[in-house]
Amino acid sequence: MDITKIAEDFERDGVVRVPRLISVEKAQEIRDEIDRYVREKLATLPGPDYVLEKDGKSVRNLWRLETHDAYFRALQDNPDILKIVATLVHGEPVCQGVETFNKPARVGSAVPYHQDNAYFCQNPPHMLTVWIALDPVTVANGAVYYVKGSHRTLLPHAPSLVQGNSIGLAAPLDVPKSEQFCGTLNVGDALFHHCQVVHHSDPNTTDQPRRGLLIVYHGSHTKTDPKLQEAYHKALALVTPDSHVLKQK
Ligand SMILES: O=C(O)CCC(=O)C(=O)O
Predict the structure, then answer these.
(1) Which of 42, 121, 127, 164 could be 228's S-S partner, Cβ–Cβ 3.0 to 4.6 Å?
(2) pLDDT tens, 118-145?
């Protein structure tokens, strides 16, 4: 892994693909642990810590895995990951969360255009997500699309009313999908994406799931911006929770 090259691409584009970040065997182990977690813990989780798809049973997201489970807590300490993250966040990495975007076969829903810092509210925006492929990620099963270079400014956001992604870009970006970077991946590959790069994903229309494990880090020096956080909390409050399906990020 050439960290200098990874950092160069990340600074310029706001997203960088890192092949084989974890092994295929490790990805299988994580898939098995997600299945165990859902089987054993979903029913006991507090409301905001998971989201189901519209069918009311397939898991869309698991949030804050590190607070509920030692296996997932340990994933944040992977030294290969920390080495890259320390360079990209310009400081000591602090894990903000371990989570999944499962995009299950046939029912996996879209994620609207957004910048993560509208949720994270960090200043300076030295924060990123390590998005690790647990299944092959293709155009058809809902790869994440990124607008390269869009990470330099935080754009206005507005409530999206989408369950699990309560806030999205207030106005569409004038960049056709054909010009966006499509994050297709093999199992074990990863995307490191900056907290201000614009991204989104389509529904999964295939019979193959597209599970992503996400580990979010910021530098220990970043601070929460109270104004940004107020706007986010307002958007979150607009998505009325339903006892089965609506659980928020
Ligand atoms: O996995 C996806 O489809 C979207 C991921 C995402 O929106 C995020 O990392 O903030």
Answers:
(1) 121
(2) 999 999 999 999 999 999 999 999 999 9
